[in-house]
Design brief:
The complex is a heterodimer of chains A (309) and B (108). With 309 residues, chain A is α/β, with parallel strands linked by helices. Chain A has 2 domains: 182 residues, FAD/NAD(P)-binding domain, CATH 3.50.50; 119 residues, FAD/NAD(P)-binding domain, CATH 3.50.50.60. Chain A is built from 7 helices and 17 strands. Chain B has 108 residues and is of the alpha/beta class. A 5-stranded mixed β-sheet of chain B has the order 1-3-2-4-5. The two termini of chain B are 16 Å apart. Classes of the chains: A alpha/beta (309), B alpha/beta (108).
Chain lengths: 309, 108
C-alpha cells in the first residue's frame, strides 16, 4: 500500500511503534475489524530483538530468541490484516476527533492513536563515547559480543540488563569489569549470585565512567571511585552500556508525562486526550517487560474498540 | 544485476566490491545478531529498487573475519558504502530505509 493511497482514508486505529505493545494491540484491533495501521520508524519487534534469549515469556518453556519473537509478532499481526508502514513519525496532532500523524512518507489520519514507541538506550554523555560508538562501545551484547573473543570489556550499569548481558558476554571474553555507580546492584538476586560466582567478572562498585579513551577503537576507560574520589584507568577493548532507557517521546506534545518523560495513563491505557492511548515501555509503570507491554497493548486495543463504538 | 543482495566471501571481496563499476552497499552481519535479521528485508528492498545502479552484498562476519577486521567492524549490523574501491560512508547499527536511500542517492 502506498502512502498516497493511505492518505485518502481514515484509520480506526493508528499505532505508533511495532514492538510487543503495538503489535499486540494490532492483533486485537484487527480481530475486532478495526482498520489498523502500524507505523514503525525502525524495524518490527522493538527492543526485544536485541536480546539473545527471551526466557520469561509464558508458554515458551525453552525460551525463544528475541529476533524470532519479533518476527512472529509481525507475522501474527499481518495475519489478521494489520497494515505495517516503515515511516518515521515526525509530528502528531492528537486533540481533534480525527487525529493526524505526519511522517516522512506523508500524513495519516486516525480516529484513535496508540503511542507505543518504547525507549532508546541512555548514553553517559562522557568524552569519547560518541566517537567510539561502534568502535568498541556497544549497546547490544548479542550483536557484538563475538567480536570480543578473548578480550577484556567493561559493562556499565547495575540493573538486570547489565548483569544479564555481562553473564552472556562471559561466553566470549576473558575478563569483564562491571562498573556501577552505587554500592549495591539493582539486578535480581538470582542474577547477582551468578555474577558474583563468575570468576571472569570483577565488580567495581561506586564507580562512574569519566572518559572512554582510544583513537581508532576503545583502548581504556577512565573511572572515578565516588567513595574516595580516586581515579583509575582500566584497559579495555570494548564497553557495553546498560545505564537505563529514555522514552521515545520527542515528537509528542500536549500529553502528560512524568519527570523522566514517560507517558502517564490510567489503568485502561487512556491519556487525558480522548481517543489517545499509550502502551508498553513508553508508559510510566513499574515493570517494563515484553509480557506487560503485550498486556498494555491488548487493553489499549479494547479501549479503542470501546471508544469507537 | 539480480536485484537481490548477494552473499560474498573474503576472497571475492576484491572483485565484487573494490573493483565493482557501481557503488556497493556492504552489509556485515551474522546469524546470531537479531537486529541483523531485521535489516535483511530493508536490504532486499534496496537491491530491488536500485537494480543495476547499486550492488548490495552481504558479508557474514563469522565466515569472513578478514574483511570484517580490515574495515574495523566491531559492531553489527554495520553497513559500508563503497564507490571506486573507496569507503564513502560507514553506518553502524540498524538504519531506516529512508536514511539508507538518502545516502545511496547522494552517491550514485
Amino acid at each position: 500500500m502506498s502512502s498516497l493511497e493511505s492518505q485518502n482514508e481514515t484509520y480506526d486505529m493508528i499505532i505508533l511503534g511495532a514492538g510487543p505493545a503495538g503489535l499486540t494491540a494490532a492483533i486485537y484491533a484487527c480481530r475486532a475489524n478495526l482498520k489498523t495501521l502500524v507505523l514503525e520508524s525502525m524495524l518490527s519487534g522493538g527492543e526485544i530483538t536485541a536480546t539473545d534469549q527471551l526466557d520469561n515469556y509464558p508458554g515458551f518453556p525453552e525460551g525463544i530468541s528475541g529476533a524470532e519473537f519479533g518476527e512472529r509478532l509481525e507475522k501474527q499481526a499481518k495475519r489478521f490484516g494489520a497494515e505495517l508502514n516503515f515511516a518515521a513519525v515526525e509530528k502528531v496532532e492528537l486533540e481533534a476527533e480525527i487525529k493526524r500523524v505526519f511522517t516522512a512518507q506523508g500524513e495519516f489520519h486516525g480516529r484513535t492513536v496508540l503511542i507505543a514507541t518504547g525507549t532508546a538506550p541512555r548514553t553517559l554523555g562522557v568524552p569519547g563515547e560518541e566517537k567510539l560508538r561502534g568502535r568498541g562501545i556497544s549497546f547490544c551484547a548479542t550483536c557484538d559480543g563475538p567480536f570480543f573473543r578473548e578480550k577484556r570489556v567493561a559493562v556499565i550499569g547495575g540493573g538486570d540488563s547489565a548483569v544479564e548481558e555481562a553473564l552472556y558476554l562471559t561466553r566470549f571474553v576473558d575478563k569483564i569489569d562491571l562498573i556501577h555507580r552505587r554500592e549495591n546492584l539493582r539486578a535480581i538476586p538470582s542474577l547477582q549470585e551468578k555474577m558474583f560466582s563468575n570468576p571472569k567478572i570483577e565488580f567495581h562498585k561506586n564507580c562512574v565512567v569519566k572518559e572512554f579513551g582510544g583513537e581508532q577503537k576503545v583502548e581504556k576507560i577512565i573511572v572515578e571511585n565516588l567513595a574516595d574520589s580516586s581515579i583509575k584507568e582500566l584497559p579495555a577493548d570494548g564497553a557495553f552500556l546498560y545505564v537505563g532507557r529514555i522514552p521515545n517521546v520527542e515528537f509528542i506534545e500536549g500529553i502528560e508525562k512524568d519527570a523522566q518523560g514517560f507517558i502517564i495513563t490510567n489503568e485502561e491505557m487512556e491519556t487525558a486526550l480522548p481517543g489517545v492511548f499509550a502502551a508498553g515501555d513508553i508508559r510510566r509503570k513499574y515493570l517494563r517487560q515484553v509480557l506487560t507491554a503485550a498486556a498494555d497493548g491488548a487493553i489499549a486495543a479494547a479501549m479503542s474498540i470501546k471508544y469507537l463504538s | 544485476m539480480s536485484g537481490k543482495p548477494v552473499d560474498i566471501s573474503d576472497n571475492q571481496f576484491q572483485e565484487e566490491v573494490i573493483e565493482a563499476n557501481v557503488p556497493v552497499l556492504v552489509d556485515f552481519w551474522a546469524s546470531w545478531c537479531g537486529p541483523c535479521r531485521m535489516v535483511a528485508p530493508v536490504l532486499e528492498e534496496m537491491a530491488q529498487e536500485y537494480q543495476d545502479r547499486l550492488k548490495v552484498v552481504k558479508v557474514n562476519v563469522d565466515e569472513n573475519p578478514d574483511t570484517a577486521s580490515r574495515y574495523s567492524v566491531m559492531s553489527i549490523p554495520t553497513m559500508i558504502l563503497f564507490k571506486n574501491g573507496e569507503v564513502l560512508e560507514t553506518l553502524v547499527g540498524v538504519r531506516k530505509k529512508d536514511e539508507l536511500s538518502g545516502i545511496v542517492e547522494q552517491n550514485l
